[in-house]
Structure formats: C-alpha cells, structure tokens
Amino acid sequence: MFAVQFDRFGGPDVLHLGTADAPHPGAGQIRVRVQAAGVSPVDVGLRSGRTPMSARLPLPHIPGVDVAGVVDEIGHGVDGVAIGDHVFGVVELAKLGGASAQFAVLQLWAHKPAAMPWAQAGAAGTSAETATRALDLLAPQPGMTLLIDGAAGGVGSVAVQLAAARGIRVIGTARPDNHAFLHQLGATPVTYGDGLADRVNALGAGRVDRALDVAGAGSLTELLNLTGDPAAVVTLADFTAPTHGVRLSMGQLAGEPDGRHGLRTAAELFTEGRFTVPIEAAFPIQKATDAHDTAEHGSPRGKIVMIVDDAYES
Questions:
Q1: How far, in Å, are 60, 101, 203, 290 from residue 12 at the CA level?
Q2: Which of 70, 146, 270, 301 has its CA 20 to 30 A from that of 179?
Q3: What is the pTM of this model?
Q4: Are 29 and 78 contacting, i.e. CB atoms less than 8 angstroms apart?
Q5: What is the pLDDT of residues 271-290, one digit of tens each?
Q6: What does the buried/exposed string (b/e) look like for 187-198 if buried means 16 or more CB atoms within 10 Å of the residue's CB?
C-alpha cells in the first residue's frame, strides 16, 4: 500500500510518500480503505521528536491517529459493522499512528452520517473522544457554566459543541479574530491570556462552575481563581497540573472514563444539525508536508486533514 511516513525525526520535510505493508485487523478491530486522515497535535509532536512518546516509535513510522474510510476487513468478535460501511474513528492506540495511508486499522469507530463530508469525518475522531472524556471527568450539569481555554482549536471547537449539546453554557477563550467563530459554535467568546479572570468576571455571567484547559498556556492559576476548586478544573495539555491539584487528562490508560461514546454522539448531533467539525485546511495526501506545516505553524481554527486522492490510488 502507499503511505505517508518518516524515518527520522524533524520538521515536516522528513515526511515522504512511499510504500508499506498493509495492516490487518486483530480481534475487536476493523480495517478501512482510507478516504481522509486528520493531522493532530499528537502527530506533529511525534514527528518532531519533541514528545517522550517519540522514543516508543519504531521507524519508519506512518503518522495519523484520526481516520475515516470504507470498511474492507473485519476482525474477530466485531459486530454491528459490515464490509462497505462508511465509518470514522481512531486507529489502534498502541501504535500511535497509521492513518495517513491507503489502509488503516481502527480501534474505535462509529458510522459516518451520510451527509458528513469525508474531510470532517477524517478529522473528528480524537477530538470527539478527547472532548467527551474531559467533559465526563468534569461532569457539568445542564445550566452550569463551563470555561474552555483554547476553544478555537481542533479539540476546543468540538468540546464547545458537545458541551452546548448537554445544556451547558460555554465561555470560550480565543484571539479576538476568532471570537465570531466561537459565537457561531455556541460559545460566549473572551480573549485569552493574562487577566482572563477579570475579563470573564466582566461578562457578568456569574459563577464559572467548571473549566477545561485545552491550550496548556499556563492559565491554571486563573482557572482555579474562577472556579474556586481544583476538582472543577481539567487540563489536557499543562503538565504542571499536579502542582495545582488539577487533573491532567491522559485517557483510558490512566483509568479515566471511556470517551468512545463521543464518536456516536458526534454522529448523532451532526445528523440533527447541531454539530460540525471545523476544518481549517484540507490537503491531498501527496501534500502531507504542507498539511503538517500548517498544523504546526498555522493559526489554529479547527482541524487539518488530508484527503486520499482517488486518482493517485488508481
């Protein structure tokens, strides 16, 4: 099969499109013929070698954890899905990649709504799962106010919508030029950075019941000031969390709630017209270098995705 891969760590230029052995699903897994694959911060960090997880990667490595495609193989013990079904989801977690290829094995998935574009489906997986997991940890109740710091990015923009669908009032931080974008998603926008607590209080919104830090930009002290309770704050990206008594969400390996139902919820909400996956940019898979460069250096507003070119496949 063809696959985007890298055999050394570095910038986007280490990526190349070559060939690799096609994977096959194990028990509880499915394989898809890939139509679209997301480019996430995890992919960028692994490729650059800046994350400790990079040391776990056998090289060459095929990046990509988010994927959508057409089911073409089904592993033992899997039901509820058939050859030819259109699905989206997350690759085999232990491999930390594999989506940017002709074929990919999925560990978590949901059926893609017929009207959902492949680009959105290919970028939805980890954002929906991660946002759902964080919301389950925070357990906000309908009518509460949730502050999301870093609300315009891939995970933040999904978390805004999933929280609003639960009946939660959302305040989202972003740069001023992303405020209209957040308003469209259903959040009350506020500028991020120093003095955040004062700006939030100036909204006259009353108590902030819960806070989710997506950005990891050093806001935990202000989030604690707003909520008054370390148990009311979860961060996805600030590794100083333990010094603040705040939970750092690291997924099921840390014994956290299983967020896979977020995929099904996202699909249902999309069908109801209450959810979208904002796409900042889409690239053909042959331009993986440009996709990674945009993910690493672009202005985050939604997701970056690669589309598999049918002409290339033939």
A1: 14, 17, 41, 7
A2: 270
A3: 0.91
A4: yes
A5: 999 999 999 999 999 999 99
A6: bbbbebeeebbe
